[in-house]
Amino acid sequence: MAQPGGSRAVTVSDVQQLVKRKDEIEAQIKACYELLEGQKGVGMNEPLVDAEGFPRDDIDLYQVRTARHNIICLQNDHKALMKQVEEALHQLHAREKEKHARDEAEALAEAMSQNQSLPQAFAKVNAVTPGSPASISGLQVDDEIVEFGSVNVNNFQNLQNIATVVQHSEGRPLSVTVIRSGKKVHVGLTPKRWAGKGLLG
Hints:
Elements: H1 12-38, H2 61-117, E1 123-124, H3 133-137, E2 144-148, E3 151-152, H4 159-168, E4 174-180, E5 183-189
Antiparallel strand pairs: 1-2, 2-3, 2-4, 4-5
Helix pairs in contact: 1-2
Organism: Circaetus pectoralis (black-chested snake-eagle)
Keywords: Chaperone, Coiled coil
Pfam family, one: Nas2_N
């Protein structure tokens, strides 16, 4: 496994392995302390000689020395490992943050490009009568009209332009382009006489 800070990017499983190793070391330290506890409660610093300076004969000196030595070594390993875990977590978080920022930037760029690619609307649908030619064609309230037959933002002056196109196109399908919920939608609209007013409704 590459060390954190090496050339390979740290993964979540690397951190999990480090944590597993940390747990193993902690279990070994605990076992060593229990061994010392079993030797008449000799800890890390109690003397191993009696009042006269002779080695104590009520404990297993070899076992106590080995346990003490192991605890010191394991604690050093534990400290180093904790540093590795911390570094690995830092790297993971930094990468997560970087990815999040990149995703946000991409989403923003996409939204911007969509906005730029949407043509300018010159009118907005504020009412559609049910059963009318406009309703049948699929026009909806709040659709923003970008093109209505030959009328677009460049030649539109007033609603009379649309009325003229409608009168000239009675019974013939007109191509209408609208912006609906931020997307361009094409609608085929045929102006014709119906039960209500006008040719569109």
